[in-house]
UniProtKB/TrEMBL annotation:
A Pfam family recorded for this sequence: MNHE
Keyword Cell membrane set for record: yes
InterPro entries referenced in this protein's UniProt entry, alphabetically: Cation_antiport_E (IPR002758)
Protein name: Na+/H+ antiporter subunit E
Similarity comment text for this entry: Belongs to the CPA3 antiporters (TC 2.A.63) subunit E family.
Lineage: Bacteria, Pseudomonadati, Bacteroidota, Flavobacteriia, Flavobacteriales
Keywords: Cell membrane, Membrane, Transmembrane, Transmembrane helix
Length: 158
């Protein structure tokens, strides 16, 4: 997997150098173009995890970007309206992710999203304590984290 990723990066830099366009869009286009070329010429497609994990990482990042934009709009609306509509609370979110990197990734994604903050992880790593600005329904909030961030993190790490 590491060799395929490094090959993809090297081919991306070759693409950028040959086109002479050093914009971010060209780097991204070159990365995806070379990813597909490497996938097409790969003999061991079914055995290679690189071609399975990169799309899952991209989906996770796009989902995080969507949640980030949505949360920014909610918090900005709260700031500009005269009446406070928030119902803050601290929620215990049971964790399915077990690895330290997975818990750290989940906690950081939650904390980077405006309106939520990861407070602590239990000693047995089974519960994440989250403070949120909008907790109308605790079960819906927990389900949103588990079906959103946590499920996608588990897909990337598995």
């Amino acid at each position: 997997m590491k060799n395929q990723f490094l090959s993809n990066l090297l081919l991306t830099f070759v693409w950028v150098a040959l086109t002479g366009d050093f914009s971010v869009e060209n780097y991204i286009f070159g990365f995806f173009l070379n990813f597909h070329i490497l996938w097409l010429i790969s003999v061991k497609r079914k055995k290679s995890t690189y071609f399975l994990i990169v799309p899952k990482i991209i989906i996770l990042l796009l989902f995080f970007l969507y949640e980030l934009i949505k949360a920014n709009i909610e918090v900005a609306y709260e700031v500009i309206t005269p009446k406070l509509n928030m119902t803050p609370g601290i929620i215990m979110v049971p964790l399915d992710v077990k690895s330290d990197i997975g818990i750290t990734l989940l906690a950081n994604m939650i904390s980077l999203t405006p309106g939520t903050l990861s407070l602590d992880v239990s000693n047995d790593k089974k519960v994440l304590f989250v403070h949120a600005m909008y907790v109308d329904d605790r079960e819906k909030f927990i389900r949103g984290i588990k079906d959103g961030f946590e499920r996608r993190i588990l897909e990337v790490l598995s």
